[in-house]
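Structure, all two chains, one model.
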Amino acid sequence: MNALLHQRSTDAVHADAELRDRLVFGDEGAFIETYERYSPLVYTIAARVTRDARAAEDVTQEVFLTIWQRPLAYDAAKGSLRGWLAMIAHRRAIDLVRREEAHRRTAAGAGLATDPPGHGDPVGDQVSDADAARRVETAVRALPAPLRHAVTLAYFHGRTYREVASELGVPEGTAKSRLREGLRRLAVALRGTGVGDSEGT
Amino acid sequence: MRDTDSHDTVAGLIGAWALDACSPEESELVRAHLGQCAACAREARVLREVAGELAGDHMRPPPRVEAVLRTAARGARRPAPAAPEYARPYAAQVAALDLMLDDLTAEEWRRLAAYGELTVHDLVAHLAATDSVVAAGLGLAVRPPMTPGTTLVARTAVVVGAARSRPVEETRRSWRAQAAELCGLLLREPSFATAKVAVGRPLPVPDVLVARAFETWVHGNDIAAATGRPAVLPLPEHLHAMADLAARALPFAIARRGTATGERCVRLHLTGAGGGTWTIPLAPGGPVGDPVAVLTVDIVEFCLLVGARREPDEVRAGIRGDDVPARELLRAAPALAPVP
């Protein structure tokens, strides 16, 4: 179930903290549990950002190896395990896309033939919780176009806010505030709460 | 840069940061600010969680990913050794300490961590020394070889002395390998669950393994404190096993102090995850009827007191009934800590 749709309860914080601790204590069962619970999230992020099935698999592996090797890097007091894994997945995927693009630019500059970017769009088995996914999609579509474009360019295409500004032909300050405002509105739409609300109390 | 400048800069960057759309320098600026500004930290958390949902979670990786990952994970970090139920608290503490030792610097290994004289390196050797007494008692070959009847103190002196002339990695490896061997033996021989092993005197094997978990945790805390690493509490069920062992041993500790006051008992109520209630006779084999006092303590505080990492007078305890025996119980608790 989509954690975002609910207030993060004390129970949820406990459950994340306990799973983290079991990873610290070298519990392989906890590792498999983490993978089973969050691999669709991690893989979907990686697949949609890299648009490459093999790259998405690599990112997925890296993310879960990270939590197994460095479980203490995650702190349940600072947010959900789901959100933390999503962040690591996105960062790895973005790094990969940016490296790939830098490489292509270098190759193009040197007059070399460039490979097509990937191994084709990942398909992946569709999993059941399509309702939550649809709800997110609906909320994104409902954003005013300038906010939606900015958020989409940044999150799915790995653009920095400076690149967003130049692609949309707006000042950098405008790009930054569109990204922030876009996410704030999505928070309200998905959580039914504003950014200022406290959580987990 | 004044704080307000930093706050305004960061507040403007939070959306971009949550989408990983800042430069590395800006991300670092945001990260540093979030540690100091509750308002920004709250917003950052919400926006991060929202960003994490943008892609959805409707695709599943092919099954081969899990198979490859299981193998890769074992290579990247050893899981806790497989062990019978009673030895799992020990296996867990071994895995957690191993994880902490993994990224210590050479300088951190040399820091003093306990009793004003033992370094991190010495403490790991000390743990290996006591483990080796248990291992030898169960029939495993240990290194250096041990003559039967060697005391814990003498064994620690030998093992720590030998470790000091070796690289830290070797000490860590042999401690970890011995722990795995010990767990493996216990798993292969179910009869040990009801057997005794001589550690100074003969004690039930399961109790000895819980005591090993306890000491590994306490020294892990010492090492965490000495090196600025986060201390992690044992899992609730493991804390419960440690507290239970201490509760059962308390009458003997009280008797050794020579202050036992005969036919009375105290109810010990330990609060927090893993807690429970025990009735402690004030002399070994004493009655466990109506208690003369009820003592309420947080289970972690109680365990740290038993590990001699708290003073009896600084532990926050609720006492109902007769104050004297309840205090006596608290004062006797640190005597349960194994002497190095």
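Chain B has 13 helices and nine strands.
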